[in-house]
Amino acid sequence: MYNINPPDPSRLIHGLRDTGYNINSAAADIIDNSIAADAENVHVRTVLKPNGAKIIYFGDDGHGMNKEGLRNAMRYGADKRENLKSLGKFGLGLKTASSFVCLKYSLISRDKSEGELHKQTWDLEHVADVNDWEMVDEGISHEDELAFEELCGETGTLLVWEKCDRVIKNNSYDPGSSEEKAALKRVAGRMTEHFALVFHKYLDSSEDRFRNVNIMVDGNPVEYWNPFYPQRSEQVLPEKLQRVDVAVPENPDQTFPVLIKAWVLPHRKDMEKEEEQKYAKITNRRQGFYIYREGRLIDHGNWQGIWIAADPHFSLIRVEMEFTFDLDDAFEIDVRKSRIIMNEALTEYLEELLRAPREHANKVYRRKQTSSVTEGIDHTGSNRTITSTKRVAKPSVGSSNPDTNESTVTNNRGEGIRIVAPVLNNQDPKTLSVSESESIVSGDLWEPSFVSDSNTEHQVGVRINKHHDFYSKIYTRAGGQDSVEGMDLLLYALAAAELNNSDDELKDIWDDIRSEVSGNLKKLLKSYDIPADCSNAQ
Question: What is the pTM of this model?
Fold first, then answer.
């Protein structure tokens, strides 16, 4: 025998106002629904009435809903969506997000251009008065029709937030005053910035993995902001480490991929001020994980408890982490889609995986110190020796493409062997075979390459990572030029041997050897300090 014990409507509907939203996350939750409805255009409009009443409209040109679908959408705990990839998930977001901001909200929609508009309204004060889950039937007003036509079009959905008591915090402005207008404009500006980040993979027309969506706020298009600034940043995780498979709780034998990239931004001093402020936006609070579900950012600006987020030495690293709806339960996605919970095994794996990228970011942050101590290390003698030495075992280069970093060579593995390694044109002849590098993304000590002082007749070269501890701590302690040259020749010989004995089958093995040697050197040199200067390098 069961006893039905329904919740108190008034207390529950008001209690659900406080589920942890802010106005930016609430507005983003509404846009999730528009994207789920296949909208191409989403309009957000803020209105301040002369009497101080604030109204916010969300209009989209998606597939819209009929009367039954609209009623379901406004029910607390709506039916599960057929498309599990949908950004909408629990059937609560529309209601809890809206009621956080306002005491009254209406949904207006139609799914056919020639069809009639349908409307459903929740008024929390009315629910409290009647103490029942009773919606308000207001009918379609002329103002509703005009707003729908302007913000939606032939089909789509219009959400109207009214009685907005939480739009402007601590509102002491005179109703409808210029000060209140300015405050509402600031609210719209912060929403715009939030949308630019949260939906940047949808707003960026060059991103081909997700459908492009246009978002307008008060008539102004939202321009995406990619927090990784890929045009200038280094992606420092090797391709083979950019995926980890995570099991689903109900079936540990079934796994789905989590994609991970570690981006290290340029040092502030390597950017113009406007570039840093508009594209990089480097602050302590922006370091850490940027976690995406189906291309939508759900959490960012922290290290998920693995490390402390306030350390300025790591302010240049941002970790991109993506997963699909298949892992919702594994990450315990909440109603607001604003945080995840990682299991202990994944946390330990990420801590080890990201240790080297964080150290690389630390070194880029300390660029001035590292550059100063390594300044003056001369590789001219090494390049002269390599150029004058005949019969060094190395591949014969047929062709090289700097756009794809692919070269075709004849080596010990055969003819026409394709090798992927940096292809560098128009290099200084004095550093053609051995050169320093600021941008070895793997973090390894050295990297084989194919180089040319023009754009043809490439030959074997080696790039040495200027930020690796071996370079900043050992090269700088070299007792004379012969010692520098000896270390250069050793690394060149290793690079030549790799390129002369590599192909598609063996590439990963060579990568592992280089990575393991470089990693071991870092560990062995951990207790060494960087010299105050490099005067002993000559």
Answer: 0.72
